[in-house]
Design a protein that fits this description.
Order of helices and strands: EEHHHHEHEHHEHEHEHEHEEHEH
Largest sheet: 9 strands, parallel
Shape: globular
Distance between the termini: 23 Å
Number of helices: 13
Low-confidence stretches: 1-26
Structural class: alpha/beta
Radius of gyration: 21 Å
Amino acid sequence: MTLPSIHIGPDHSSPIYTITQGNLTKGDSISRLNSTLQLVVHKLLEGKDIEFTEACLLEKATPSELPGLCETSRHIRDIGKGSTISFSPKVFIPLTHLCRDFCDYCTFRQSPTEASSLFLSPEQVLTIAKVGQKLGCTEALFTLGERPEQRYPEAKAWLQKRGFKSTLDYLTFVCSLVLKETTLLPHSNPGTMSRIEMSKLKEVNVSLGVMLETLSLNLTKPGQPHHRAPSKWPIVRRKTLDLAGRLKIPFTTGILTGIGESKIDRIEALWAIKQSNKTYGHIQEVIIQNFQAKKSTPMAHHPNPLLHDTLWTTAVARLILGPDINIQVPPNLNSKTYPLFLLAGINDWGGISPLTKDFVNPESPWPTLGTLNQETAAYGLNLKPRLPIYPEYFINNHDFVSSSLRTNISRLVDTDGFVKGGINRYV
């Protein structure tokens, strides 16, 4: 079988190298790495840990050396994940678009005068979830702004009128409704959280998530993307990351690339994720999300990261994080080139919805599951639907899931922990 190859260059068109599904034993790409990088990748291929200083050497890889990094990361992926590439069939439930933060690249955030409603009602939440259930979805992804009641009296009044102390209090309630009234499993991305808030959410969510995004303090300075976003300060993001570990919550995180950070900044963020997981073992998934400029934002004319830049970040993520952590690149943010990331070490496509759009990136539609399956199979890999919690966190593992949720999980999965019926349920 002749497997696809993709030609890319600095302008996304003129080819400067070709990456194919090569045979690692030939080592053609690895042999073209400089001697320093060869020492690093061979250490990784031997299953040894590298030091942070060695990880920083990856920053110096030239475009012609990128295939060697990809070949190494792909091999490491295969050691941990075999030929399985997963995705989560989901519905996207934007509980509220209100947010106390102002990130310069965000179009999800709305003010009370812009939003059609301050919050989705319980009835609206259940309507979305029940339609998603009929379409075979297993994940209810709750996305919402950060603590809007701290900025907007209207939000605080709406919550108090209905007996809720905070947005996270209301989120806990609607997650419990979804569990009670449907077969969907909630996964929430509510921003930074306290220990008490996370403990309550753990009882009604099989997993939680917060994007680390970046550890660059430079991006919090005046004129930078996170200057008006207090919850994006690195210290509070890292605190949430570690709290999830202490509470044994399966956690999704990731980095946002192309917003002004350096390659070393990305390496530092990935290293921080690695160290948190090394301590607690709770990082189930890391997302490599490439910035997409959006109209009517302060960063509307900021350049998107080039393809080879995102490819480098993806390969480096696998090299740093190792064979066991699940790594994804959103296919809808790379609609013309997403198969390439299979050659850079990912093993997951993230959440894909047959019903709802990506409310964070509404201009970027999901690929159809039929197309995604064909593109994945073309590389000799098998597409499998999963839950919002990965199998390794509930099969022969009782540390990470509340006992009250185990029955909900068991109804949906096969003996390997993937969704019953596999991809044939959807294509």
